[in-house]
Amino acid sequence: YSLAVPSIATLSPYRPGKPAGELERELGLTDIVSLASNENPLGPSPLALAAATASLSRLERYPDGAGFELKAALHKAYGISSDRLTLGNGSNELLNLAARAFVRPGDEVIYSQYAFVAYSIAAKACQAQAVEVPARDYGHDLHAMATAVSERTRLIYLANPNNPTGTSFSEAELRAFLDSVPERVIVVLDEAYTEYVDPQAGLPNGLELVDDYPNLIVTRTFSKAFGLAGLRVGFAVANGQISDLMNRIREPFNVNAAALAAASAALEDHDYLQRTLENNRRGRRQLSEGLERLGLEFLASQGNFVTLELKREAQPVFEALLRQGVIVRPLQPYAMPRHLRVTVGTERENSRFLEALARVLSC
Ligand code: PMP
């Protein structure tokens, strides 16, 4: 075929974690532990589930294309007015919309080594030149990223905390970076994992920076701490002009009715969010202590996952874990062939993973 954007032919499709159902069928196992996709191990919030279920009685209707109620709920939760919001079919759609709105063929898009793969897909699909800046200690080297900005740079993706490394940068580092980037360059700050951050860690809250930086777009998701990955809903916060442009190019009904209803309810379920964060705090500690006992190194994480280093090829370990019914994430797409990423699960799931890993490594 003659492609509108020739570089599409060079893209690798996003590779999701192996579905548990597939492994069940392959191995005839039943008790599969799926710790591959940074999902919430507690299941959905009961309030969100009830709201999504109730929305199904109106399936003949289009969803509210403007997302009035969810925007009102976001205003109540975060104090953001609706003219600064764009709702997305997952935050992934918003990462793409930012590129589609602002990036022209031949422009440069900057992101860090070990960045979420969706950034390079979004950049290349716009015929942009992707500029990957080497990481420092597996995290963003913001100084080097600022130095990489050229006349042709149009957009920069940052993630705080970063997936798949769990690394993070401080508010002072972020502000220094934003101060040094010209205003004509759009900065997308991906905060998909922000709810999990240790409150003492001094990390920025991107939503509070949007007023100070007219070129900043902050993206958030309901897929992680709010437990709604299957429904696909996220939001972007930026100044009114940017939000207006993003809303012009999104599809009219990009967020479905069940997702809108569930997300509004999830924002009200403070008890669920607290349980989620408490489970994550305990689980991160359980995994860290377990990995230390196995003599393994891992990256300090502010997310709902831990990335460990095996000092040998990770693929065979990943496959051996599959045979034990434990699905984690190999990181070849990130050029980290000796690392595995494991999502924080329930206490039982974390134990299953640690026991399986101990068995695999002792073979
Ligand atoms: N950003 C990062 C850093 C992620 O890890 C993910 C999901 N893996 C996303 C964005 C996209 O999440 P969603 O589309 O489900 O909101």
Automatic annotation (TrEMBL):
Pathway: Amino-acid biosynthesis; L-histidine biosynthesis; L-histidine from 5-phospho-alpha-D-ribose 1-diphosphate: step 7/9. It is an enzyme of class 2 (transferase). PROSITE patterns: AA_TRANSFER_CLASS_2. Its EC number is 2.6.1.9. The keyword Amino-acid biosynthesis applies. It comes from the Bacteria. The modification N6-(pyridoxal phosphate)lysine is found at K224. SUPFAM superfamilies: PLP-dependent transferases. Signal peptide: none annotated. Keywords: Amino-acid biosynthesis, Aminotransferase, Histidine biosynthesis, Pyridoxal phosphate, Transferase. It holds the Pfam family Aminotran_1_2. InterPro entries: Aminotrans_II_pyridoxalP_BS, Aminotransferase_I/II_large, HisP_aminotrans, HistidinolP_aminotransfase, PyrdxlP-dep_Trfase, PyrdxlP-dep_Trfase_major, PyrdxlP-dep_Trfase_small. It catalyses: L-histidinol phosphate + 2-oxoglutarate = 3-(imidazol-4-yl)-2-oxopropyl phosphate + L-glutamate. Homodimer. HAMAP family: HisC_aminotrans_2. This is Histidinol-phosphate aminotransferase. It comes from Marinobacterium zhoushanense. The lineage of its organism: Bacteria, Pseudomonadati, Pseudomonadota, Gammaproteobacteria, Oceanospirillales. The gene is hisC2.
